[in-house]
Every structure is written in structure tokens, then in C-alpha cells.
Amino acid sequence: MTLRKNPCCVKVRGSHILEVSCARCDRLIARYQKVGGSSLVKMYRERITEGSIDFSQSHGALFCPDCGARIATRYITKPDRKEAYRLTPSAFHKRKVCG
Ligand SMILES: [Zn+2]
User: Fold this and answer.
1) Distance 39 CA to ligand 1 centre (A)
2) How far does the centroid of ligand 1 lie from the alpha carbon of residue 16, in Å?
3) For 84-96, what is each residue's pLDDT tens digit?
4) pLDDT over 80 (residue 98)
5) pLDDT tens-digit profile of 44-66?
6) Residue 1 above 90 pLDDT?
7) SS3 per residue for 72-93
8) How far apart (Å, rounded) are the C-alpha atoms in residues 15 and 25?
9) Phi-psi region of 47 (alpha: psi -120 to 50; beta: other; left: phi over 0)
10) How far is the CA of 13 from the centre of ligand 1 (A)?
């Protein structure tokens, strides 16, 4: 499985890495720098370190490259006006990466 680095990624201090995968086929979608212990409802594009989707491009929605399930939908956050993907609650699994 090849992962593409996100060239827009910004290192976030105090974050930990979550792996977000497809709930239907378990394909890894993205590695994400999560801050705090709250549940994962969105991913800022600039905090995605790498994934199986090309995050150097802007996508209207994120689809699993294997089974085509819709994982997330793009929107602009308020009030910080950043590009983010709102995750579909039943469409993904997350796993904390140690280290
Ligand atoms: Zn899938």
C-alpha cells in the first residue's frame, strides 16, 4: 500500500497521530494529527500527514479508493476559515498510532 505525503501538512505541537480507515473495507484513508482527547468529527486538511488519497489536491468529498464509500465531506470551518473534511460517523474507524 502506497501512502502519499500531504505537501500542505503543517506540524502540530502536542498532537498525536490517528489512523483513519474505511469502516467497510478497512483501507487506510489518512494519518491525522489530532489535538486533545475529544472525538474525531473533522480533519483539517493541513493536519493530514499522509494518506491513500492525494491531499495536495482539494476534494469535494473523500471516497475510499478501494470500495468507494464516502468517508468525509469538505467544508470551511468557522471562525478560522480553514479547509476541513467533516467525517461521516459510521463510515470510518480510527486507531491511535503509538510513538
Ligand atoms: Zn473502503
Assistant:
1) 21
2) 24
3) 999 999 999 999 9
4) no
5) 999 999 999 999 999 999 999 99
6) no
7) EEEEECCCCCCEEEEECCCCEE
8) 27
9) alpha
10) 30
- For residue 27, report the distance from its CA to the centre of ligand 1, in Å: 5
Cell of 43: 480533519
Q: What's the grid cell of residue 92?
A: 470510518
Mean pLDDT score of the chain:
95
Average pLDDT over residues 14-23: 97
Q: Look up residue 90 and give its amino acid.
A: S
Q: From residue 99, how far is each of 15, 18, 44, 47, 96 by CA, in Å?
A: 11, 11, 22, 17, 10
What is the whole-number distance in angstroms between the Cα of residue 26 and the centre of ligand 1? 6
Q: If pLDDT is split at 50, 70 and 90, which confidence band does 2 have? A: confident
Whole-number Å distance between alpha carbons of 7 and 14:
20
